[in-house]
């Protein structure tokens, strides 16, 4: 069935994309239409009555009468929804509650209605349409793909509503759609254990020689999947040859039974993979799937740092950003591969842009999508069918152009994802730019990095914490640190102004033991963060963030003689 449905799905996605493109010629009108329709639908909810949504007839009235609200303003409402109360934020029943990962802040409850879910599904179809066109131009095509996200909910609220990560809700409520594009059975997403889930997803996908794509929420997760493929190569080959599923996997009996029912030996494919392993010494995605034509993952933010290692596993395969979204909203859709600019999702929400000079004001003035300027950074406010209005998620985006009349945006960092020894505000974007440059300058690959602050609160310095990728060596760490200093002064003018006068002391480099960032990720999982949502700050003012990790070497610049060595 799927073989017949996939071309139909791709064709349908093309029509959805064409409709979206047509609307980008009328961004202002489409946005106004979206907002006024939403207000009419929500006017008799408890929130709608409280804020008088019935009386709002224009965009300007909406901006004047509703304040810019953070999540804390909605938390009393979402708690009541979780208890089973209805018509609180939305008139439609809440069918699922997105639970944010908590990796960059406290966890939040986001109500999901069918209308909210449909807006995301439309955005996903639009992105498939854009991707199919982009691949066609490269004489390739869209096809089956590998995804290793969990499809397990975390539980039910006291009101009987399923809750869990946003990606789980997307998969479960769009199960029929996604079954058409997976190169493995939907049941491979059911194991609780992360390694077991990745293993069985890869095992079934390896049987499909013509698989076209791999998807993960973040680039780091694509690298992890590639490492699993390499690490367990002999196990995969053995299971393919014998028709078994590795007995050491932690699989629930019911899930194992479902998988065994759909699994059988493929000795010919096993021989192909064994030949690749003998010839190349390992298995990589590009080697085992010769038709692989794209990988899809988040772009912007810190992604470029991880993209530096992609050629090792994926060659020159294009990287597609798909949809820029969060548990709270769908923000934009990528129109092409290998590009960071994404088109504002004008069908999925009403958007306002908060200029930088308005960020700290109690009553800020916003700009509409057609009023923004290329090269400027803004915080995004969204109003959508989750029942959130003028909601400030804290994401900072840069406008890099326009797609017809809709702005092209790039995620840079989340407000709060920055650090200051005094008041210089070094962001994750600054840090990522610098570490990318250093990897190229010193021809070294880093497993990961994090900038933190020293213990001293009187004379606080930057600590540059890095872990080298397996097999890598940093020949001149002092030169690396000196170059970090120069590059950061260029990337962040405020840091550059404060460093020469020693307003901020000289930084120090810490080379962490192998496996350090794996320990950090495991700590996140133990805190309850889903493995498919793993991300951690690359700038942190939490002086205990790296506590307990082994520092193999601490490096200072020649002029740094003021303090003794500080241990993590």
Q: Key features?
A:
Rossmann fold, 21 strands, disordered C terminus, 4-stranded mixed sheet, 7-stranded antiparallel sheet, globular, 39% helix, alpha+beta, 568 residues
Short description:
With 568 residues, the chain is α+β, with helices and mostly antiparallel strands.
Verbal overview:
By secondary structure, the protein is α+β, with helices and mostly antiparallel strands. It starts with a helix and ends in a 13-residue tail after the last strand. A hairpin with an 8-residue loop joins strand 18 (446-453) and strand 19 (462-468). Helix 11 packs antiparallel against helix 13 and helix 17 (428-442) packs across helix 18 (477-491). It folds into three domains: 2-115 and 322-414, 3-Layer(aba) Sandwich (Rossmann fold), CATH 3.40.50; 143-151 and 166-317, no CATH class; 419-555. The strands form five sheets. It has a seven-stranded antiparallel sheet. The longest helix is centred in the N-terminal third of the chain and has 24 residues, at 114-137. Residues 564-568 have low confidence and may be disordered. The chain is built from 20 helices and 21 strands.
Topology (elements, then pairings):
Blueprint: H1 2-23, H2 27-42, H3 46-50, H4 59-65, H5 71-82, E1 96-99, E2 109-112, H6 114-137, E3 145-147, E4 155-156, E5 162-164, H7 166-173, H8 175-179, H9 194-206, E6 213-215, H10 219-231, H11 233-242, H12 253-261, H13 267-280, H14 285-288, E7 294-296, H15 303-307, H16 310-314, E8 319-320, E9 323-325, E10 330-333, E11 342-344, E12 350-355, E13 377-383, E14 391-403, E15 406-414, E16 418-419, E17 426-427, H17 428-442, E18 446-453, E19 462-468, H18 477-491, H19 493-498, E20 508-512, H20 516-526, E21 551-555
Helix pairs in contact: 1-6, 11-13, 17-18
